Amino acid sequence: MASVQTALTGATPSQTVRKRLRSLAALELMNIPLQGGVWFGVVGLPATATNLVGFGLFALLLIEGAAYWVAKLHQMDVRRRHLPALAAFRAARIVNPLLLAAGVVATGSVAATDPGRTSWPGLAFALFAVLEHVNYFYVQLMHDTLADLRRLRSVGLRVSHLARDIARAASDASVR
Predict the structure, then answer these.
(1) Fewer Cβ atoms within 10 A, N terminus or C terminus of the chain?
(2) Model confidence over 54-109: pLDDT tens digits?
(3) Total domain count for the chain?
(4) Are 55 and 125 within 8 A, CB to CB?
């Protein structure tokens, strides 16, 4: 994809990648007020504790995603082998499943006992947060470019960028 964009725009591959990383970070952050506005404003979902817990988990994962793309951009800019704030991402990889499990259990139990608009959206947000966690920390689930889609068709799912960064740092540490 970078070569096609380079030919069309005259940008170098690294400029194209930097632009993509900035775009990914911005889109993750913009999705928080956008999704909140759509679901709680336009659609009119009630801002119950259950719905807000689920949405909060979803927003947390979007913030972590944006932080990753900003860190990746910084890594490129300063030409570091390892991702800045790697310890924070390692900690999130451990803490997130605990928060997500608690959130899914809490929203799921309310959805089971009091189903409807006051609870189902919260459970759905919590489940989307789980998918975002998997997408960032384990397996790339999001495929939004032609190159991603071609690779998905030919190779299948692949390890996420952040998971590869964490593994690279662990591998380098074990070599020392």
Answers:
(1) C
(2) 999 999 999 999 999 999 999 999 988 889 999 999 999 999 999 999 999 999 99
(3) 1
(4) yes
Tokens of 148: 């991603």
Q: Which domain holds residue 152?
A: 2-175
Inter-residue contact 58 to 125 (CB < 8 Å): yes
User: What's the whole-number average pLDDT of the chain?
Assistant: 90
d(CA 173, CA 176): 5
- Averaged pLDDT for residues 111-133: 98
- Non-local (6+) Cβ contacts of 119 within 8 A are 48, 50, 51, 107, 110, 111
Q: Which residues of 101-134 are buried (b: 16+ CB within 10 A; e: fewer)?
A: eebbebbbebbeeeeeebbbbbbbbbbbbbebbb
Which tokens belong to 167?
A: 């593994």
- Cα–Cα dist 133/128, whole Å: 9
